[in-house]
Structures are given as structure tokens and as C-alpha cells.
């Protein structure tokens, strides 16, 4: 079969563009089309639960509203996130922002109270506000609980946030559970450790497993959409070992496979661990998730409208 060359025309829709990628069927174009079609099919199927994992700077990188809208509109059923993305969601909820366009050297940035994530910048003054506000939230939750699971803890945070654009608040409002197995490895975790020095308050990762395992067992089909790799990707896949693995999966990553790391591993490798079922529909898209995921989501939404 000959490769069908792309024909970009004026006023073409995103769905028409994705169809052309699909018809070309090669390289990154074919993978993007595969991912888009898989996501659209999963969104349309009421018996499929969509697990979304977030690693890397997805919130600082501009995907906060994309994720929030997917949750609000019922297209995501469960989130597994790095603690950092949740921290950055709260930074914005408390009035902070993420910034672009600064070009000082890193030592000068430190002197100016600015942290850098690639070409994204944060201000220490925004984190000072975050620290003050998160301790108020800890205290309110601690009035109700001395011990709480990470998932329940994040749910309670969501109930106390007034920002309707927040992923955490929107998830709580729509009963979409958020799991963050590496919560201690972020500013939320650091401030939680500080708070716990003077308060009887325990966060339990083990308590998450009962809820998560029940969720997996009660899901007829699971499609995992994984942005980046790391712990969120592994937790997403490993949780589905209980039922023989995910039924379908999309991975968007810039990591390479040669080093044997999970982050760069092709999803097919998950079959050997029963983290993905035999015959499961899997696609790995190599590239920047902050660019590719919005494109895939836009194409999927256009297909199902």
C-alpha cells in the first residue's frame, strides 16, 4: 500500500486532519491517529473506564484546563498523578501562576526567587502563599481525621478549594478519585511533613489499595492514558494486574527504551508482566505530551460530537 501524502487545506477540521494522519499510517502520524481513535472509542464506550496518569510538568506546561475539562465532562474516571502536578494545580488555585519569557541564567534566577522548569518559571512568593494556604487546609482536614488515605486526603482538599478551574476540586466535585503514590516527593509532602511535626496526623498509602483494587475489579474495561512515565505510569499499570492488565493503553513519552527504564518502555512490554492483557490495544506516541495530548483530545472530541 502506498503512503498517502498529507493534504493540508484551508478550514479543514481537526477530525479531517486526524483522518489524514490515519490514512498516511506511518511514523508519528500513524501513532497519533491510532491514539486519537483509541481515545475516542474509549470515551464513547460507557463500559470503559479511562485512567489518566500525569507525570512530568503537565500542569505547569499548560494542560491544567485540558485535564480539568475532561474530568468535568465525564471523560476521565480516575487520575494517578505525581505530587508535583497536584502542587502546581494548588499554586494556581491560591492565586499563583506559571510564567514564560524569562531568560536569565539559573544563578540569577535563584537570586530573584524564581525556579525554572525547562522554559517555565515559578515565583517563590507564589509558593509562600501556597505554604500558608495549604497549612490551613491541613488543619481543617485534621479536625476530621487523625489518619487518612492519600486518595481521601486529596478528595478532602478538593472540597475545601474555591477555584472551579482546579483539577483537584473538579475531581472531588465529580467523584473522580485522584491517587498520588509519590505525594511525599513534592511541596505538598514537604509541607505535610512540617505540619505533622506538631500534629497527630497520618497519611496512609496502604489505605489507597482497597479503594483502587475495588475500582479496578468493578471496571469491565480499562483504557489507560499515560502522559510521561515514572511512578504514575507504573501505579496505573500495576493496579490493573489484579484483573490481568489494561484492555487498552496510550502512552505519550519523550523517554527512550534502550536503558530499560519503565518511563521509556514500550507498552507492549507490559504484557509480559500481565499489566496489559494479551490482545490489548496499545500505542506509544513519542513526543512532548504538552503538545500531543491536546491534539489527540481535540481529535477525539471532534470524532464523538
Features:
single chain, 305 residues, Deoxyhypusine Synthase, two-stranded antiparallel sheet, 12 helices, 10 strands, transferase, Deoxyhypusine_synthase, DHS-like_NAD/FAD-binding_dom, Putative deoxyhypusine synthase, deoxyhypusine synthase activity
Main beta-sheet annotation: 6 strands, parallel
What is the tally of beta strands? 10
Strand order of the largest sheet: 6-2-1-8-9-10
- CATH names the topology as Deoxyhypusine Synthase
In CATH, the homologous superfamily goes by the name Deoxyhypusine synthase
Strand content: 15-25%
What top-tier CATH class fits best?
A: Alpha Beta
Mean pLDDT metric = 91
Helix content: 40-55%
Structural domain tally: 1
Can you tell me the residue ranges where pLDDT is under 50 for at least 5 consecutive residues?
Answer: none
CATH architecture: 3-Layer(aba) Sandwich
| Rg on CA atoms, Å | 20 Å
- SS field, number of helical segments: 12
Order of helices and strands: HHEHEHHEEHEHHEHEHEHEEH
Structural class: alpha/beta
Task: Compute the separation of the termini in Å.
Answer: 31 Å
Shape: globular
